[in-house]
Write a structure and sequence with these properties.
By secondary structure, this protein is an alpha+beta fold. Helices cover about 30% and strands about 35% of the residues. Strands 1-2-3-5-4 form a 5-stranded mixed barrel. The chain is globular and about 50 Å long.
Length: about 140
């Protein structure tokens, strides 16, 4: 049975071994990336808008989706009202505002803005909102 050998000068042999190691790891790295991506997609459980207000978890990271119902542009930022079958919530963003009627799927952080009325101590008419962290376009 014939044997083949590649003879390399000593200064290249070390680099060749590193190249072989990297090439042997490449399928594993690609496979790990696919596992991470599929796990990430698996954990994207959408929270409906009504549940966001009911859970009252300020600071919680949520995935939610809905249709843009209203816009509020600000200097350097803006907000849009997201609506699903359970209700509406305002989403604050530093990205360009979407269009009214556009379907959105986002990851955001739940926050609460306290609004008090002068002359009515203890009365808070504030509301929950979402700070947009990511717009997800590969939802499907």
């Amino acid at each position: 049975m014939p044997r083949f050998a590649i003879l390399l000068p000593p200064r290249f042999a070390h680099h060749f071994h590193i190249l072989l190691i990297l090439l042997s790891l490449t399928p594993g790295i690609i496979g790990c990336r696919q596992i991470i991506e599929s796990t990430t997609q698996f954990t994207r459980q959408t929270t409906n808008i009504e549940a966001i207000a009911q859970q009252r978890q300020v600071g919680a990271k949520v995935y939610t989706e809905g249709t843009v119902a209203n816009l509020a542009p600000f200097v350097g930022a803006g907000a849009y009202q997201l609506q699903d079958s359970t209700g509406t919530i305002w989403v604050f963003t530093t990205q360009p505002l979407p269009s009214i009627g556009q379907q959105m799927f986002i990851r955001g952080q739940v926050n609460y803005e306290q609004i008090t009325v002068e002359g009515a101590p203890g009365l808070d008419i504030g509301d929950f909102y979402i700070q947009e962290l990511e717009r997800i376009t590969d939802h499907g």
